[in-house]
Structures are given as C-alpha cells and as structure tokens.
Amino acid sequence: MKGTDAAFDWNIRAGxxxxxxxGRGRFSRNDEGxxxxxxxxxxxxxxxxxxxxxxxxxxxxxSGAVExxxxxxxxxxxxxxxxSGRWGPERADIRVALAALPASLVNMFAPEPRLSGTxxxxxxxxxxxxxxxxxATLNGTGLRAEAPWSRGWPAATLRVEAQRAGNGAxxxxxxxxxxxxxxxxxxxxLPQGPGAEAPLSASLSGRPTSSRC
Length: 213
What we know:
Blueprint: E1 2-3, E2 7-15, E3 20-30, E4 33-45, E5 48-52, E6 56-61, E7 66-76, E8 80-87, E9 91-102, E10 114-128, E11 133-146, E12 156-164, E13 170-178, E14 182-190, E15 201-208
Antiparallel strand pairs: 1-2, 2-3, 3-4, 4-5, 4-6, 5-7, 7-8, 8-9, 9-10, 10-11, 11-12, 12-13, 13-14, 14-15
C-alpha cells in the first residue's frame, strides 16, 4: 500500500491452493464516507479463471450502508457475473446475475470429476436488513461429468429455485433431467429457518426411465 490514511493505493497478489489472485485499486475517505475503487481483480487457475471486466467501486457512506453501483466479472473461458445494489443501513436491494457461466469453473475448487455445460441464474435480496427476503434461480444445460461411472450418460439439465422469507423460512426445489434416462424432482422446506433442531420436510420423486445400454 502507498499513500495516507485518507487515500492510498492497494495491491494484492497471492498464490492460493485453488487459484492465483491478483488485484489493485485505491481506497479514499472524505466527509461523505469511504470508497474502494477496484482497477484490477482476477483469480485464475490454468485455463480457467474470473476477472473484473471493467473498473468498479464499492461505496461505504457514513450511513453505514454498502453500495455497489455495478461490478461485472468475466469468466474464462466464457460467461460473466454481475453484482449491483445496496445493503443497509435499514433496507437491502441487491441483484446478482450469472450469464453463460461454464460449469467447469467448479473445477477450480474441486478438480474431479471434470464438468462441462453452461449455467445461468439470478438472485435478488430485498427488504429490511434485519429480515431480508431472498429469491434465487439457477439453470444448468448440457451438464456432463467426465468420469468412468458416467461414460455413455446423456447431457443433463438442472433447475434449482430457492426462497427465503422475511421470517427466516426457507424453501427450495430442484428438477434434474437426463435425456430419457433419469427424471428427478426434489423439494425441501425449513418453516422455521435453518437450525440444529429446526423442523425439516423434504421429498424426492422420480425414477430412472431406461438403462445405460
């Protein structure tokens, strides 16, 4: 870091087990609050990675809020992720969107099995910060796992939906389709929210519709 308490340039470079991380930018402070400008941010492992597509900023006004005017991250080999919105001091409105992300990005953290396919999704957090509501969807297409046990399997599609109500209740559902081979549907509800002794209701339905041969 180089500068003063009111404004300084920052630089990060780290080699982690999962990826090499690099970033640089500037921190500044004035009568209205603090600001973190991000000029470069990248995490990479071999041919895969994710980087800041354009310079962005995170604002920390004196109110105690966190404001993200818009951060767009580009994935390698394809796809992008955008984050925008505001958290606090009393209410939240944050949007996260995934566009055409390759499923292989998971292999940055779990090398096996090798994955392929495309994922899109979105999430929105709204309401009071003391009891936020969350709505999220995730869709995967052309999903495959390269492993001996999956040889000959057709590509799969996956849709996941999750909601958190303001009172903490959580509900989620998932639908997996693998050509004419597998049809699975799962649902789960935590009416009192997560907890070691929280009540849980769940169901799984579906069946393999044909053999691998």
